[in-house]
Amino acid sequence: MVGGGIIGAACAEELTRRGASVTLVERNELASGASGRNQGLWVPPEDPALHEIASRSLAHYLAIADEAPLPIRIDPRPIGTVFVAVDEEGLAEATDTLAAISAGGFAVSELDDAALVKAEPELARDLAAAWFVDAGHRLDPAALTIALALLAASRGAVIRHHLSARALLTDGDRVTGVVTDEGKIEADEVVVAAGPWSPRLFEPLGIELPVLGVRGWLVRVDPGEPLVRHLVRTAEGNGAVAAVRAGDVARGGLPASDGYGSIVHPHDDGTALIGSSRAAWLTPEPEDPSVPRQVLTNAIRIVPRLADAVMTSSWWGLRPMTPDERPLIGRVRDGLLVATGHGSEGVINGAGTAELVASVVFGERPPFDASPFDPFRFA
Ligand SMILES: Cc1cc2nc3c(=O)[nH]c(=O)nc-3n(C[C@H](O)[C@H](O)[C@H](O)COP(=O)(O)OP(=O)(O)OC[C@H]3O[C@@H](n4cnc5c(N)ncnc54)[C@H](O)[C@@H]3O)c2cc1C
After folding, report:
1. Which pLDDT score is estimated for 272?
2. pTM of the prediction?
3. Which of 44, 129, 199, 305 holds its CA 20 to 30 A away from the CA of 375?
């Protein structure tokens, strides 16, 4: 297993649960990528192809919450989500989002002014529309990742952190392991779950996987008292993130972030986590450090009293994103599987991904339709 994010950890846990012998290599710490730096939400996916993989994932996280070796702090029941459209433009876009959520089996009810004030008294009064969906679980994503890895370790998995997989080992057309800074690790199957860094391992074998790193920012604030009771989010869909053209950079410099969607996520301690943004990742450090400003501006438009909150921290993570925002899960060569490209939904779909990976490793029928996740669908 290459990668100690949510996907690698979930795969290690599932594979050891089924009796496989697993070694996981992580070049930094467990959960040091986006898996430890994300918003920590399980919310219903809008893409119907993801409904089953997502609901299996949630069921698994709820099932392991008690046995997890550290608290993963998952809401046992949904906290509920208030979707808002800020203006007429947002209202038009919200229709698709809410129809998709409704198609996933979640009841969507429109909130009139009185119902909105009752549900969320601190929201701006001049929003174009609002809806309630009885869905949305909060959890600690770093703790979940570590818990899954430790559960795997308790069944014999070897977890090697601060160890890079430098290359895949091959014997003819077959992959037989990885080369690390400490030498070779041989394996019957290698699963690459290295997030946005995965393509680098495949390239020397002539395998091209269209996974783009997409940076997203979060801001944490302390308003002194809880200002929202549910998840509060804008209902507009996100635009696709395209690779940046060299000519555009030559003409205009590194691009500014675009594609902001607001989610205000209340923590039990009264603080709130606010996200997020989307922009192609070009440099190790942020191309556009002004993004937290826009993230906060959008959130204050919805919850005006956030303007008085103390800003306590801000950080970013890199999502592994495919062109259709569905993950790549499956076999790419003898002895080699990929599990990455989960975009904004790696936590939402992590444990279901692991079930699919395990079915491929053990040569079983997939637990659900795997065709939307075919690694070669863009070829
Ligand atoms: C701001 C933001 C908010 C988000 N909010 C949510 C949310 O609320 N819900 C949700 O479901 N998703 C959310 N996401 C998306 C989610 O974080 C990602 O989909 C998920 O973390 C991807 O997990 P991963 O294991 O594929 O990748 P990563 O977490 O990147 O893990 C890959 C690991 O592989 C390691 N690695 C890389 N190369 C090598 C190598 N050669 N050898 C060894 N190790 C290697 C890396 O160090 C890294 O730890 C959010 C993302 C961002 C940025």
Report:
1. 97
2. 0.97
3. 44
